[in-house]
């Protein structure tokens, strides 16, 4: 897929699949007329944007021009159509990893599936960090998967450059703007910037290793089916993280045996915080749910390598967290034997990419568009940061 023409007439807008920015932004599925390819169009009402929003969007678009990597969602064209800013991106037919959790994998994904997704995220972060930026919005809803299994990071709006006056700063102290929705994923050192006006103690700032902590939270999100700290008040979340409370993967080694013997529930899992390792648990399976008669959703065992990977990412001391480049070589990823394009569509079954049935339906029946809208209805696209 190459760059697309900066002309609104070249796109057949099909349907709205999401909104955002206080309804100033609409995301449309569209067809690019010259080739028939499906794309997503982010349309932003510029006349209604505040000056701060315009500056915010300009910064994002400037960064997008610098980034060229297969694991980062590309902006294929950016132009003004009447009073709207149009940003053209590929349409990611599986939606986001968060969409998949909400609709099909409510108790979490299988370990091998997660390994493919996390490796794609790490390759994106390795590139972003090499370019001198901190992503600051790493989470499952900012991981998009294409029909052919390509994993792409999005969410560049909060990205921040460490380069100042031609030099790479050691740390930064800036707190990301418009970050309320991302608080559960942020590292302790980033959240600590909130204390700037509450404390006279020295703030040490943060660097790219804060993204590694967010990656660890995302790993728990993918494995457990929900986000650690999600249901906590912001103040409690901040204190828990600063005090070193560490989330973990929920399985037979981290949930007490007496809880696993209860009827299926999410008791003890609402906060995503483990009370401690289960007695006598041996990690040996690949994260698949067992067939125990208890039927507990977390009656499964993830591999030791997966647990070790998450523990490394979630170190309270950022100095102890490995870089993205180092983590790409972690033993956790040795289980990957095939290309994502071969493996992910198979691993994601019974989910099918939306475009696999949309084209024939739309051509064969006037009700095709309604069927498409129905198929898209489960996607949390207002949280996709295209």
UniProtKB/TrEMBL annotation:
GO annotation, cellular component aspect: cytoplasm; nucleus; serine/threonine protein kinase complex
Record-linked Pfam families: Pkinase (PF00069)
Domain (Protein kinase) ranges: 11-333
Nucleus is among the record's keywords: yes
Annotated region described as Disordered, given as residue ranges: 259-297
Biological process according to GO: protein export from nucleus
PROSITE patterns in the record: PROTEIN_KINASE_DOM
Record's compositionally biased regions (Polar residues): 283-297
Location relative to the cell: Cytoplasm; Nucleus
Keywords: Cell cycle, Cytoplasm, Nucleus, Phosphoprotein
Top-level taxonomic group: Eukaryota
Listed GO MF terms: ATP binding; protein kinase activity; protein serine/threonine kinase activator activity
Quaternary state and interactors: Component of a trimeric complex composed of STK11/LKB1, STRAD (STRADA or STRADB) and CAB39/MO25 (CAB39/MO25alpha or CAB39L/MO25beta): the complex tethers STK11/LKB1 in the cytoplasm and stimulates its catalytic activity.
Sequence similarity: Belongs to the protein kinase superfamily. STE Ser/Thr protein kinase family. STE20 subfamily.
Known role: Pseudokinase which, in complex with CAB39/MO25 (CAB39/MO25alpha or CAB39L/MO25beta), binds to and activates STK11/LKB1. Adopts a closed conformation typical of active protein kinases and binds STK11/LKB1 as a pseudosubstrate, promoting conformational change of STK11/LKB1 in an active conformation.
Protein name: STE20-related kinase adapter protein alpha
């Amino acid at each position: 897929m190459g760059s697309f023409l900066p002309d609104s007439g070249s796109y057949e807008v099909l349907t709205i699949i999401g909104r955002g920015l206080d309804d100033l932004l609409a995301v449309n599925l569209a067809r690019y007329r010259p080739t028939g390819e499906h794309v997503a169009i982010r349309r932003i009402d510029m006349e209604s944007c505040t000056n701060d929003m315009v500056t915010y969007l300009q910064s994002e678009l400037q960064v997008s021009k610098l980034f060229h990597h297969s694991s980062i969602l590309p902006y294929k064209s950016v132009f003004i159509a009447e009073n709207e800013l149009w940003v053209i991106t590929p349409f990611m037919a599986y939606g986001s990893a968060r969409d998949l959790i909400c609709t099909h994998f409510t108790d979490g994904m299988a370990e091998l599936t997660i390994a493919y997704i996390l490796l794609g995220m790490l390759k994106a972060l390795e590139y972003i960090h090499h370019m001198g930026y901190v992503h600051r919005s790493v989470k499952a809803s900012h991981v998009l998967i294409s029909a052919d299994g390509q994993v792409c990071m999005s969410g560049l709006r909060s990205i921040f450059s460490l380069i100042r006056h031609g030099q790479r700063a050691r740390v930064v102290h800036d707190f990301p703007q418009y970050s309320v929705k991302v608080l559960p994923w942020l590292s302790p050192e980033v959240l600590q910037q909130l204390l700037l006006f509450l404390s006279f103690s020295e703030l040490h700032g943060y660097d790219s290793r804060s993204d590694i902590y967010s990656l660890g939270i995302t790993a728990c999100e993918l494995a457990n089916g929900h986000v650690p700290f999600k249901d906590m008040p912001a103040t409690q979340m901040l204190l828990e993280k600063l005090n070193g409370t560490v989330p973990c993967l929920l399985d037979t080694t981290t949930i007490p045996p007496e809880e696993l013997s209860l009827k299926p529930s999410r008791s003890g899992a609402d906060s995503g915080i483990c009370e401690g390792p289960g007695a006598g648990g041996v990690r040996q399976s690949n994260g698949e749910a067992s067939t125990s008669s208890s039927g507990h959703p977390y009656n499964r065992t993830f591999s030791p390598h997966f647990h070790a990977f998450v523990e490394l990412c979630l170190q309270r001391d950022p100095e102890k967290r490995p870089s993205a480049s180092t983590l790409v070589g972690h033993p956790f990823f040795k289980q990957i034997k095939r290309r994502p394009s071969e493996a992910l569509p198979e691993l994601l079954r019974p989910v099918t990419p939306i475009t696999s049935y949309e084209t024939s339906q739309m051509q064969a029946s006037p009700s095709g568009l309604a069927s498409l809208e129905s198929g898209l209805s489960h996607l949390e696209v207002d949280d996709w940061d295209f």
